[in-house]
Amino acid sequence: MPHETVEQSMTPNEAWARLREGNLRFVNEETEHPNQDSARRQSLVNSQEPFAVIFGCSDSRLAAEIIFDVGLGDMFVVRTAGHVIDLASLGSLEFAVDLLNVPLIVILGHNSCGAVTGAIDAKNDGEMPKGFVRDLIEHIAPSVQAAERQGITDVNGTVIEHVKQTTDRLVELSTVIAKAIDEGRTAVAGVAYVLEDGQAQLVSSLGLDLD
């Protein structure tokens, strides 16, 4: 990875439009599989210029390049179960924004999320999982509580609230990302993916001009 700031030619809105168009192709079974040939591979040997960073759940059904119909070098991807923010993921996101100058951060959750389900179950039965899975659940618990305050108790509704909470939490924790949003260099899109039909639905945003 380069250590100098990459010159980015795409705006946050243009980046979101490209992802939205790619997802529409995926949903309609019209995928183009761009930037996946040997020429593209060779062009990326010495540098990269991703136009989006995906901070998503690690679920195997949530392959970011596939559901947005993009290819090599298009997206910088960071994944943890339940898109839980930790120091490593936060540092990775700051790297993408500050050094790669990525104009869009996507928080990518999905329906029927096992990590969110685990956090709801722990809240309801009072039993926490063992090992470091407990750490995941503890990070998701505030989103479960925030959802309940709004009368939301189902998993899929809680997933959407968790995406929104993660979006806000990311900006609260990272002055680097908050500054980039204030300067218009990047934006955050909170997205909930639907496993059944493949749609990536925008549920929150910071810094995007959606008019």
Automatic annotation (TrEMBL):
It holds the Pfam family Pro_CA. It comes from the Bacteria. Zn(2+) binds at C57, D59, H110, C113. InterPro entries: Carbonic_anhydrase, Carbonic_anhydrase_CS, Carbonic_anhydrase_sf. GO terms for molecular function: carbonate dehydratase activity; zinc ion binding. Binds 1 zinc ion per subunit. PROSITE patterns: PROK_CO2_ANHYDRASE_1, PROK_CO2_ANHYDRASE_2. It catalyses: hydrogencarbonate + H(+) = CO2 + H2O. One of its GO terms (biological process) is carbon utilization. It is an enzyme of class 4 (lyase). Reversible hydration of carbon dioxide. Catalyzes the reversible hydration of carbon dioxide to form bicarbonate. PANTHER family: CARBONIC ANHYDRASE, CARBONIC ANHYDRASE 2. This is Carbonic anhydrase. It comes from Glutamicibacter uratoxydans.
